[in-house]
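Reviewer 2 asked us to include a model.

Predict the structure of this chain.
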Amino acid sequence: MIKGLSPIISTVIVMAIVFGAASFVTPWMSNLVTGVSEQTGQTTTTQMLCQNLAYDFDTDYGTDGVIWNFTEWNDTVLTKIINTGGVNIVNVSFELTVWEETEGESIYSFEPTSDTQLTAVSPLLPGQSTILEADITEDVEGILREIKILNNICPSKYAHNPSL
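Predicted model (structure tokens):
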């Protein structure tokens, strides 16, 4: 006749298996919960920031807030924007739509020059205005038809000037 394990020994073995498995699962579960929690917190913060973000062109500057000149060697685009929202504005970029007779419509993307880029150290505060200069890194030819000042943190929020 075969004897079984005593109930006490079998309980100890089962508990050892459970604790052993828990020692592998607990760190993984902890990292998962922490990661999801941090991601949710960042998403909520970004949504709140984007909800309070608003800016527009200062139409008293240049032509509807824009001064531009595309020449053979010195292409320039300057814009003046006003922070009409309730949060600081940082990290913007330019999107230019240019019409050229032989090429048709082209879209260019440029960052502001390092002197005019809005950063966490030098943001555009609510109620303030600033002039941004595009860091044009290639030859642009044609007529500027449209300009957008994009916010890289909140891509759905941008200043748009289609009236050029």
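Residues 7-51 form the longest helix (45 residues). The chain is about 25% helix and 30% strand. We have added this to the supplementary material.
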